[in-house]
Structure formats: structure tokens, C-alpha cells
């Protein structure tokens, strides 16, 4: 009983009345799409009920996993592995003057990303997979209905998506500094940090990353080998590692 009361209070405290409504609706299969209007957020958010959307939502807005205890006025934010746009929305409401480039490879997630960000200005959504070079990537479902990884393949088919590198994004949008770089790419950090990171990583001021050795062994090793070339201050927050690069 106390746990139930604690959950209700926490939902209300952080999310307002929308949190209580979400808490009730998520238990019913009737509601395929949950529409949530958060306190102090400009526009409502759509979530797919009975999917990992809810877990990501709680991570971003209840656990505040992307809250930075550091004064910033970011001009450019890159969201690699944007999923349905929740971290993008968090950053946009916190830093409304920022330009955000959100990259998501999986088609159904990308459609939700477009829905959730369409009312905001200066958000660019790209249907690509993040990689260390131009390539074709095959999207492969994992055990969870909404979890997936990507791998490089030679030929295109209905399950492939084009890859884009952060170097390409920097060149395409004439970026001279990445104020916040968020990376949650389901193990592809292994390839991302394998090579071709030297140019864009030195432009990065704050890096937020979730590592996935369970999906791709060697992901952490690849990342730390690259980041060790820089001076930084690291903070662990929930599943994320936050690096303030000097």
C-alpha cells in the first residue's frame, strides 16, 4: 500500500495530473496510444502503451536521467538514437533556443519521433543509423518487441537503413561545436568509436552515453579507448555516463 501511494505521489509531483492519468491508462490494453501533457512542457507527448516507450518516458522525465548539473546555454545538441523523441523534447524544453539534430534508424520509432517533435521549431529529424562511415545497416529485432540492433551489410533491402557519421552531420549543418551529444545506440557505439571520431569528438563539450556491452561485446572498450585521449570529468547517472570534456 505504501509503495502504491509513493508511486502516485511521485507521478503527481513530477508529472502533475497527467502523471496520475498515465498511471491509470497504462494498465488497460484499450489505450494503444497514451497522450501525456507534462507540466511546464509546451506540447503533449504520444507514447505507445505496453511498449518500451513507458520505460524510456520514466527514465527521461521521472528519473531525470538527462538533467545536467552544470550551467549550459547550448546552441547545438545532437541526439543519436532519438527513439520516439523523449530526450529531444526534454532538451528542447530546457534549452528552447538550441538547435537539435535527432537521428533514429528504426521506422516505427522514427514516425513517433516526427509526431512528438513536429510542433517544435529548430528540430531536425533524420532517419539514419549512426555509424563511423557511410554504409547500409540492417535493422534486427531483439527479444523485446521494440528493441533492435543494427549491423553493416552490403546490399539494401526492406530492412536496411542508410548510415550517417557524426562527421557528415557536422559538415552538412556547418557545426563548429557540439554542446551536448547524447548517444544511446544499442551497441553501435562499438563501431562509432572504432575510428573516424577524432574530428567530431574534439568539438564536443558534454557527452552523454549509455553503453551496451550486453548487445555488442567490446562496446565499452571501443568507447573508453577513444575518450581516454581527452581530459574530462565523468559522472554516472542511472544508466548514463556523462562526460564534461575540457
UniProtKB/TrEMBL annotation:
**Pfam families xrefs:** Methyltransf_21
Keyword match Translocase:
no
Q: Name one GO biological process term.
A: methylation
| Keyword ATP-binding attributed | no
Q: Which domain of life is it from?
A: Bacteria
Matching PANTHER family: METHYLTRANSFERASE, FKBM FAMILY PROTEIN, SLL1173 PROTEIN
Which protein is depicted?
A: FkbM family methyltransferase
Natural source organism: Neotamlana laminarinivorans
